[in-house]
Amino acid sequence: PTGRTPLLRVGGAVLFESAAIVEYLEDTTPHPLHPRDPIDRARARAWMEQGSGLLGDIWSLEMARDMTSYESARAAVVRRIMVLEGALGGGPWFFGEQLSTVDVVLAPAFRYFDTFDRHIETQVFDAAPKVTQWRRALADRPSVCAAVGADYAERLWDFLTKNNSYLTQLR
Q: Which pTM does this prediction carry?
């Protein structure tokens, strides 16, 4: 409906926005990922919103047309990464040993940097060792690997090139 992804078709309905899709899956699958405790569940929803904000900042980074807008977007991404760094415990997942909806929301955000970093050094994770470890743990999950096609990185870079992203000029 908004001309953007992700979306999920369920019968004749189209669900959009990552958090809404995750909530739907949470409500309809046999193994929920939200914490059981109401306070922890509310905290998870708040962190999911932070994940949505990070995705917005990544979009700004991707669509930056010059060094000034790129550096501004990059700084916004780094700020969000550092907030996550401060919130993470011992892992391997956001809430420790239990995979949660927060992990599910953030995995696609981190995947963008797998593509970016093949071509350039964004350095957004340089001061965030816990986020780096968490990011790698998520990337190694079979479900995360299978969430996109084998040509994902190539298609993303082609999209950036066609849209004159400043990222592609840093190569």
A: 0.88
